[in-house]
Amino acid sequence: FEAPSCAGGPPDRVFLVGDYSSAAQFFVTVGVGSFLYAPAALGGYLFLPHTYSPGTRAPRIDLGVTVALSFLWLVSSCAWAAALGDIKGATSPGGVLAQLGACQRQGTARCRALASARTSGLNTSVV
What residue stretches are annotated with the MARVEL domain (predicted)? Predict the structure, then answer.
């Protein structure tokens, strides 16, 4: 983002610290994979019931895929929750003010946060 400079010149370009996209991408990939697998498994149960008869491998394969997706969902949720904490720290008013050049110079500017960040939507995404 662009922040005002002390000298009154062009604004300084400031970048937030950290890249948290991999945790979000992992979380979304597991979610999309689960949503794609669920109708495929349902279609197999509805339209190919003979493949799920006792003694066949299909029920075990379905159980294995479901367990794997459940484990991946748990891991991706934990990764996203950890990244969310880091995102909150990087975007907190104090963290952002610490990166502004105008606020780093003593005596040139008084920097303070006027409001706190609202992260309730991000908190809901972890649940």
Answer: 1-127
Query: Tens digits of per-residue pLDDT, 9-61?
Result: 777 777 777 888 899 999 999 999 999 999 999 999 999 989 888 889 999 99
Which contacts of 112-115 are long-range, i.e. CB under 8 A and separated by 24 or more positions?
Answer: none
Smallest CA-to-CA distance from 2 within 126, 10, 44, 25 is with: 10
Phi first, then psi, for residue 95 (nearest 5°) are -70, -40
Contact 102, 6 (CB under 8 A): yes
Q: What single-letter DSSP state applies at residue 121?
A: H
